[in-house]
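Problem 3 from the worked examples.
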Amino acid sequence: MAEPRITVDVNGPVATITVSRPEKLNAFDIDMLKELSAACDELEANADIRAAILTGAGKAFSAGGDIKAWAAMTPNEFGHAWVRFGHRVFERLATLRVPLIAALNGHALGGGLELAAAADIRIAETHIRIGLPETGLGMVPGWSGTQRLVRRFGAQAVRRMALGGETFSATEAASLGIVDHVVETGAAVTAAQAYAERIARRGPAAEEVAKLMIASANGEDNGTAVEALGSILVAKTADLKEGVSAFAEKREPVFKGEW
């Protein structure tokens, strides 16, 4: 059996997701997307986790999608099995219950930048570069590079990367609001760990709800955020308990409108 290329390590209330394909600069193929989806499920199932870190093994954060993984696909396969599936997985990552911190220990290009954009906080090492090189290959960003990145970082920075092929240093990215903190080479994971521990000391329910509210205000899947917030609220009511009890006892519920 092949070694997993997406690993999850849990240390107290903090989980670390590592993209581990260093020989390919952590470029993604279909199997890695599936592993990342499974990692999200693992984090969601562990109620003790209060914050998560996302980073890459070796010298890169992620070079994005492995060209060899999609170049031979038919247009239908490319659109559905690659772009749409990857989009769903990255959306799963972006909507994790807990805050996610990306520790950019190396370059984040194309899908790698889209991966980093799924995090709530980005900490970049000073030597890295970020960009969206897809149009230079005759294609376009497909894992929310023209959607989530625009909502979170603004259209003009994305235009410069996607249309002009510009790449930004960590310092330039910080000035544009694409990364939140810049640290020395080799220090991103340590800084992310400290930030994650800072989050973990705060109220977990408040953190989860605040994350949903911020996403809603930013136009990120408002329907999901509203339904999640509403469901959490109703789940704590006396009326819900009465409704479930009445169902089990095969009687009409007596609702009192009590919170």
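Problem 4, a separate protein:
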Amino acid sequence: MVRIFRHYVSPVKFVLAIIDFIAIYVVAVSAEYIRYYFADISLDITLSGLLLKLIVPMIMVPVLLGFGAYESDSFRDQRIRYSRLTIALIISSMILISIIYLFPITHLFRSVFLLIIILSSFAVLVTHHLVLKIMGGGARLAIRLLIIGDNGAALAAKNYIQETPETGITVIGCHAFKDFQTQEKKPKSVLKSALVTYAQNHHISMILLADQHSASELFEDLLCCRLYGVEVRGLPDFYEQIKGYVDLETIDPEKLASVSGFGGGDLLARSLKRVVDLLIGVIFLCLALPVICMTAILVKATSRGPVFYLQERIGLYGKSFNLIKFRSMRVDAEASGTPQWASEKDPRVTAVGGFLRRSRIDEIPQVLNVLRGDMSFVGPRPERPYFVEQLVKDITYFNSRHLMKPGITGWAQVRYPYGASVDDAKCKLEHDLYYIKNYSLFLDFMVMLQTMRVILFPKGVR
């Protein structure tokens, strides 16, 4: 796996994004040559002109990422792939048009810019089709994996990898650790051990230890493999890399407390995060003001009760605060006095409220919570005190999600559908732990980009 600022990225997705960036840039440069050639006008390309063309891929690739063009379901389903590519290309074109008109320094004629958009869109559609076909869904770039273990965990890992080839991993073998044990008590050379020989003959690039006995029994052999450049991973690390969450079923509490990461709480990281929150918050609030006014009118006109809804939530270090939302339910939604999970097609949701929840517009007032310092733009979603009391009893480590400031959106929100049960809360906690462990501003940027996909293609909204 490719690791960028602590965040793990599939090599297949990483290579495809790089190819997209290069293809779009080449097209952006070539379009000007093509237009001037047919107009029979000489073209003097300068270094500044070449650098300015980088704006095109620097806008288009992040938008492609944000709208899910590199997500696993886009790799498997052509209909999903092309619908997301089309929407992302339209949105990125609109952004580029705005930039061209707002900043004439780009010195691009309209005809040239139109040609850039057309050719870039065509290039992206072609590269995604060809690259995925040539790479065989990722097999050409695959990490060659050996699984040591013959238990249920080994089988589950093997099945998951085989069902998701876009992870860029190919299972070469799945063996019990006893298959690699040396019969002699003191072998003459670890270089001739069964495991090292197998790894060399099959060009293994990663070993997954799915059996807890294998690490101690094969210690010298595994160390030798590592010296030859073979990665050795346990199940928790492996799942963290390929699934993007900390697996609570396999994690060792001692290891969780001592592993690298969990650096998001230091003063520098929090200060930078706060500055980014304030900048984005002020800009977003100004841009969203028309939407806020229109939504307030609709809520007030279509249902009885206040426009805004204040709800107590648990934030950083377990401190409570009032979260601000547009009211999307009836005023008597919890007349019984007992908080309830939101259900699918919840009858308490108003007609306008259903749209507000699907579009996430009801979350916009939470920008005020961000400016006040109660929340961040990205972080674990804050829960209500009533549910926190229950979940702390039912789920180990649940309180650890309060070690970072809660967010309007988060890694769990873009990777997992709406949660409305203890099991859902556990799965979302696994994603929150990944975010806390591997926190960086880059990961925040990734989450904010992918939030566009969640808004446009909502799943499980209630």
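Solution to problem 4. The chain is about 55% helix and 10% strand. The two ends are 35 Å apart (CA to CA).
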